[in-house]
Design brief:
The chain has 174 residues and is an alpha/beta fold. The chain is built from five helices and four strands; from the N terminus they run βαβαββααα.
């Protein structure tokens, strides 16, 4: 089940703010990307677009915000050990917040894990990083991959969003 249905969700909020949705003072969705590693080249604009597309696809309101950090294997290993008690690097971690003031949470992605696993999936590193950001955002929105059925639903949804990002040439609508 999606835990953020009151904030986002295709069946929930539409994200519009009445008839003046085109007004200049209408808040814009935010995806803040920080690259905190140097081993892998990162296109922060593409990752921002991936996050925004995932949020829009799930019906998040315009004032929604997510933070994305691209980190090293060692940094994500430290976080994985601290918060999940798993002492190894992982590809992505998601830390949901309560959604107050539109803040959905933080997505942490390991650039080194993305670079290492991209060839196995036939992806470029940029595409794998985008997929991991989408995966993390979906976790923030309540998607789960702990059971086979939930994992299948989540993978299908992230493929749909990634395909839409690819079709837009990596340029999701602003």
């Amino acid at each position: 089940t999606r835990t953020w249905r009151g904030i986002c969700g295709r069946g929930g909020a539409s994200g519009s703010r009445g008839s003046d949705s085109g007004a200049r003072d209408t808040p814009r969705m935010k995806a803040l990307v920080t690259n905190r590693q140097r081993a892998v080249a990162v296109d922060g604009r593409r990752l921002r677009r991936a996050a925004l597309l995932a949020m829009r696809s799930e019906g998040c309101p315009q004032e929604s915000e997510v933070s994305i950090a691209v980190v090293s294997d060692e940094a994500i290993r430290t976080l994985n050990r601290r918060y999940r008690r798993v002492d190894r690097p992982t590809d992505v971690l998601a830390f949901p917040q309560d959604g107050s003031r539109g803040v959905l949470g933080d997505v942490i992605v390991s650039a080194e894990r993305a670079a290492a696993q991209a060839p196995a999936y036939g992806h470029t590193v940029a595409r794998e990083l985008s997929l991991l950001v989408i995966h993390g955002v979906l976790h923030l929105l309540g998607y789960d991959d702990r059971t086979p059925n939930a994992s299948k639903r989540m993978r299908r949804r992230q493929r749909e969003i990634l395909s839409a990002l690819d079709a837009a040439g990596g340029r999701a609508h602003r």
